[in-house]
Design a protein that fits this description.
alpha+beta, 13% strand, elongated
């Protein structure tokens, strides 16, 4: 009897999303960068540039350097373009382009990796560049100077923000300013990080700058909303002050004004709430990336965590304050509208009660009138019926029957009246039962 080896893997049936979910953790990997290296990093908003347009743009660059373009539907791509390594990644609201040159000739920041890419291609990038950064990574032996010398030589003498990173395995400096070439600058010094850790640290710095700028995009929106919120708050205060003194005929106009005010606030919330939520998410990423730097202070130099917290936190608090004011104002308008609607409803209930009381009075009068009419009806029917009985009695007397018509008529009056009254009463009760 032949035995077949059992393959445990053959018995496993994968979930349809298993591979996709597993590969998600490896999305957008960092680049291993060895010192010395230079890097150019560009970030632009992609709200007016769809994925197909970006892939076409990247394909044009690949065609220029005769390399394979990205696949259809790709949201990230990297390849070697001769002397530089190219990397493109599309995110939710922005896209990022990274150019890495593995050699630094001359002074840091003197030769940008962008110079190795056709200027015509760079000119086709979307015209809303949010961030442009030049980075130089050097070994410790290539830059043995103090902070003041580094600032004067590479950062136009500006105050530097810097720290030891990776618990002293490297150094990083920047001034968070845009220089004459239109780019901000980072200088990293590799003491004992190695290419992989250098790449991770560099990616964290770029993400700190990127998400810092994305978070700050909400600040102008928040500032523009502050006068509108103050105006709306003043209008709400006027309406709530007028409510206790309003007459009944003024209530519909007040309710209409409150409804319009609520509509304006809800419209502003729908336009801005997602932006404020995104700012909070971006700020949390910035804080997380700063913690991952594992900074150690350099004497006399402000570290990244302190600088970003001091500059970015007030901006985020402003955005959060405006978002909170919007939500509170919406609740206040909702409460005021509910109170006024309750007041209007109470007024309407009073009117309805008065109307019902009036209807009850009319129904009572109609009942009395109906009873009067019924009495007249009994008399009229009795009169005509007794008349017919009288004519019948006279006819019988003429035919030879010994009757006294007057006596027969007198006796018929109470009998007919009682029968008619009982008949009308029974008919009224029957109709009442049918309508119950």
């Amino acid at each position: 009897m032949n035995t077949v080896a059992f393959d445990p893997a053959a018995a496993l049936v994968d979930h349809p999303l298993r591979r996709e979910l597993n590969d998600e953790i490896h999305a957008r990997p960092f680049e291993a960068i060895a010192a010395p290296s230079a890097l150019s990093y560009l970030v632009y908003l992609n709200r007016n540039c769809n994925l197909e347009q970006e892939l076409w743009l990247v394909g044009q660059l690949c065609a220029h350097f005769s390399c394979t373009p990205p696949a259809a539907g790709a949201i990230q791509f990297s390849c070697n373009l001769g002397p530089v390594r190219f990397r493109w990644a599309r995110h939710g609201e922005f896209s990022a382009i990274t150019l890495i040159c593995g050699a630094v000739t001359g002074q840091p920041f003197a030769d940008s990796p962008r110079n190795h890419v056709p200027a015509e291609w760079l000119a086709q990038l979307p015209r809303n560049i949010l961030l442009a950064v030049e980075v130089t990574l050097l070994p410790e032996s290539a830059l043995a100077a103090d902070v003041e010398t580094i600032s004067a030589a590479y950062f136009a003498g500006n105050d530097l923000v810097g720290a030891q990173i990776a618990e002293g395995a490297g150094l990083a400096f920047t001034d968070f300013r845009i220089h004459a070439d239109g780019c901000s600058r980072y200088l990293l010094i590799d003491k004992r990080m190695g290419p992989r850790q250098s790449g991770r640290m560099l990616q964290r710095f770029l993400e700190i700058d990127t998400y810092r700028m994305m978070a700050c995009l909400t600040l102008p929106l928040a500032k523009s909303l502050q006068p509108e919120l103050a105006k709306t708050d003043s209008e709400l205060a006027e309406l709530t002050t007028a409510m206790p003194k309003a007459r009944q005929e003024d209530e519909p106009a007040l309710l209409d004004q409150l409804t319009q005010l609520a509509a304006r606030i809800e419209s502003a919330l729908s336009r801005t709430d997602s932006r404020f939520s995104a700012a909070r998410a971006y700020y949390e990423i910035v804080e997380r990336r700063i913690r991952e730097l594992r900074e150690l202070r350099i004497a006399g130099t402000q570290p990244f965590s302190e600088f970003v917290a001091r500059r970015l936190l007030p901006a985020m608090e402003t955005c959060e304050s405006v978002a909170r004011s919007q939500r509170i104002l919406a609740k206040r308008v909702s409460r005021a509208s509910a109170l006024l609607r309750t007041r209007v409803d109470v007024s309407r209930e009073k009117q309805n009660q008065q109307l019902l009381a009036s209807m009850n009075r009319r129904a009572h009068l109609q009942l009395r009138l109906q009873e009067t009419v019924e009495g007249l009806s009994v008399a009229a029917i009795t009169y005509y019926t007794v008349g017919l009985v009288g004519y019948a009695a006279k006819g019988l007397k003429t035919a030879g029957v010994h009757l006294e018509p007057e006596l027969i008529t007198g006796i018929a009056i109470p009998v007919v009246a009682i029968c008619v009254a009982l008949g009308l009463r029974r008919m009224r009760k029957t109709l009442a039962r049918k309508h119950q």
